[in-house]
Design goal:
three-stranded antiparallel beta sheet, 3 strands
């Protein structure tokens, strides 16, 4: 049986760097919407910590391991262009 995706249960963004940082904190990209050829929209399942982590990211206070960040960035780009 297919699970239905509810909008309120997911955070959506086109910011690939934010997605890479969130992946460093254990989040997973659930879907990538490539319906617009010039922009990919990433969906990440929401939880109670996600919004606070996003605020830290934009306040330049979220610390991630640089090699992990870069590896997740490469992985995300591969998913965008090879799907």
């Amino acid at each position: 049986m297919k699970k239905l995706l509810h909008e309120k249960d997911y955070f959506k963004t086109s910011d690939i760097s934010l997605c890479s940082a969130l992946c460093c904190f254990g989040y997973q990209i659930e879907t990538i919407d490539r319906s617009n050829p010039s922009k990919a929209i990433f969906s990440i399942k929401r939880d109670e910590q996600l919004d606070d982590l996003i605020k830290l990211y934009f306040a330049h206070q979220a610390n991630v391991e640089p090699i992990s960040f870069f590896n997740f960035l490469k992985e995300i780009k591969t998913r965008i262009y090879n799907i």
